[in-house]
Specification:
The chain is of the alpha+beta class. It has 10 helices and 4 strands.
């Protein structure tokens, strides 16, 4: 047992951001799989908005991925994941916000759900949802490709930051779809960044924990067709 517990379901994009940050900081933690309890009173007592992840640190409980990641980076020892320079830190927050506003909604919530999550449950994809997402994904990828200058190791230069760990899981999800694979072929800087990120020990460790669940049905996602799926 440790005094840190992460609550969520194994393939959640935002849960894995938190697991990446904790693993990179070498913080020992337990993982509580909420899959059988999603939407239950137990889950809602942890997160009143019926989402994941949730972090419990010695009785201090907090939800929302950005709040958790910032807390972990400030509270625990290990390599700092926030720039000291305030302008660079502002750019880091810009990326974190962009993931929630422009990357995750279209790459995961729209495209990956229709190509990966619903088909695994025997639910046909909604091609209108996919069509709505594709031009917006193109814009997001073009922005990222432009921001990754040829001499840039990470999103903010030479320092690995929370920005990189926030973007990576969504890009991984995108890369598992046929459309995403095709789009990524013409973005070599993003490709090089992904190679560097995937070489990170934390990424290797977290990927190993996710692998057994990849491609398997996410049973609670059956409800998403009515509660989450965009309508066009």
């Amino acid at each position: 047992m440790t005094d840190v517990t992460v609550y969520g379901f194994p393939i959640s994009t935002f849960v894995n951001i938190v697991r990446l940050v904790l693993t990179h900081k070498e913080v020992a933690f337990d993982f509580h799989d909420l899959e059988p309890e999603m939407g239950s009173p137990t889950h809602l007592s942890l997160h009143p908005f019926n989402r994941v992840p949730i972090l419990d640190h010695a009785g201090f409980r907090i939800y929302e991925t950005s709040a958790i990641a910032l807390y972990v980076d400030e509270v625990f020892d290990g390599p700092a994941l926030q720039p000291k320079d305030l302008r660079q830190r502002a750019r880091m927050y810009q990326w974190i916000s962009a993931v929630s506003s422009y990357y995750y909604p279209y790459m995961s919530y729209h495209l990956s759900h229709e190509r990966l999550i619903y088909p695994a449950l025997g639910i046909a994809p909604d091609e209108k949802v996919v069509a709505h997402a594709l031009p917006r994904i193109t814009v997001a990828l073009d922005v990222m490709e432009r921001e990754l200058h040829t001499d840039t190791v990470y999103l903010l230069g030479d320092q690995l930051t929370l920005a990189d760990f926030f973007v990576l899981p969504t890009m991984t999800s995108l890369s598992m779809t046929p459309e995403g694979q095709e789009m990524l072929k013409s973005r070599p800087r993003i490709g090089a960044w992904r190679v560097r990120m995937e070489a990170q020990p934390a990424v290797t460790k977290v990927r190993a924990t996710v692998a057994p669940h990849s491609g398997k049905p996410v049973e609670h996602a059956r409800k998403w067709v009515k509660t989450h799926r965009p309508r066009y």
